[in-house]
Amino acid sequence: MKRHTLLIGLLWAFVAFVFAAPADAHEVRPAYLQVDQTGADRYSVIWRTPLLSGMPLPVVLTFPEGVRTISGPGTQEMPGSTIERRLIEVPGGLAGKRIDFIGLQATITDVLIRIAMDGRTTTSMARPSQPWLAIDAQQGTLAVAAAYTRHGIEHILFGFDHLLFIASLMLIVRDWRVLVKTITAFTIAHSITLALAALGLVTLPAGPVEAMIALSIMLVSVEAVRLRRGDTSLAIEWPWVVAFAFGLLHGFGFAGALVDLGLPRGDIPLALLFFNIGVEIGQLIFIAAILAVTASLRRIFTIPRQAPVATAYAIGIVASFWLVSRLDAMFS
Q1: Which residues contact 170 (CB under 8 A, 6 or more apart)?
Q2: 216-219: long-range contacts (C-beta < 8 A, 24 or more apart)?
Q3: Phi-psi region of 300 (alpha: psi -120 to 50; beta: other; left: phi over 0)
Q4: How far apart are the C-alpha atoms of 325 and 1, rounded to whole Å?
Q5: Distance in angstroms (rounded) separating the CA atoms of residues 227 and 171
Q6: Which helix (H) or strand (E) segment is 307 a member of?
């Protein structure tokens, strides 16, 4: 599991625990609605309502006309609350539509609302004085650019397989000019497949893609060892060619994250562009950090000549573990 996914999971596990725990202080607790986009027009819904004096909150969650329930609702009784889960399909998406809380105006209870869709997460509140939520039809251009740039940076910096591939590429380049060519080739390649996959023009199953990404790291780390032994190969002589070839594969991995986020209607080219810019910024941050650390260590002591070989072996071992575990997940 990737680090950002783990952190987000732990955070929302804590939130769920807080909401599920009985309140000792006072009886009027907020209701909670969580909507997460799972596809182009599909959303998972969690609707938690507190029990007031042992009775369910007399509020009915109402989605726009035309919404179709795919699965559920499934209800779970918790101490002091009721949790309802369902999967819905909204033709045309939720953007620009309204969610109503029928009966909320007759209570003194608020509803905390968290909606994750089109690559952004918003938190708002519905109150008895305004028992509905109007979902913004579209973000501003700057908001979309900022959100997707941030997502791109986060994805690359917490995508350890992509970072290890970049690190392994750095082990087979011999000077900064070759490094620039290699990283540029990798960027161009994954930009192509990222766009094709995110737009649905080309699709590959996630399991084989993730396994092949691990294999690509292994192969480049092997080339790094061969370079230190004085051998030569296509990857050693023309690392930018190998970077481009494997970059096409890594683009499908980036696209998986972008599809999970969702693309905002009307701003798809903008979102694609700035997600990719975010990925490039993250790559440059990582490369700059490696170069800075290496330069600092060289000022402190002499780095052993075998250090790159040891690094290549370490990367290869990690990639091998990923490959085996991902193959096992595919076939189990």
Answers
A1: 179, 287, 290
A2: 216/165, 216/246, 216/249, 216/250, 217/161, 217/164, 217/165, 217/168, 217/315, 217/316, 217/318, 217/319, 217/322, 218/316, 218/319, 218/320, 218/323
A3: alpha
A4: 12
A5: 9
A6: helix 307-331
Distance CA 277, CA 321 (A): 30
pLDDT at 94 over 70: yes
Q: Left (φ > 0), alpha (ψ -120 to 50) or beta: where does 200 sit?
A: left
For 148-196, write each residue's pLDDT tens digit: 888 788 888 888 889 999 999 999 988 888 989 999 999 999 999 988 9
Angle at 139 between CA 30 and CA 261, to 5 degrees: 75
What is the average pLDDT across 59-81?
A: 83
> What DSSP string runs through 130-148?
B-EEEPPS---HHHHHHHH
- For 296-311, letters b (16+ CB in 10 Å) and e give eeeeeeeeeeeebbeb
Q: Give the integer Cα–Cα distance in Å for 262 and 280.
A: 20
Task: From residue 39, give the alpha-carbon distance in Å to each of 3, 43, 263.
Answer: 23, 7, 10
pTM of the model: 0.62
Of the candidate ranges 111-125, 196-210, 258-272, 301-315, the one whose mean pLDDT is the lowest: 258-272
Backbone torsions φ then ψ of 303, nearest 5 degrees: -75, 130
Which residues touch 5 (CB under 8 Å, ≥6 apart)? 158
Which residue shows structure tokens 């309204």? 98
Higher pLDDT, 179 or 12: 179
Token pair belonging to 160: 């350890």
Output the six-digit token pair for 159: 């995508």
Tokens 């008895």 -> residue: 128
Give the pLDDT mean for 4-10.
Answer: 36
The end-to-end CA distance of the chain, in Å, is 18
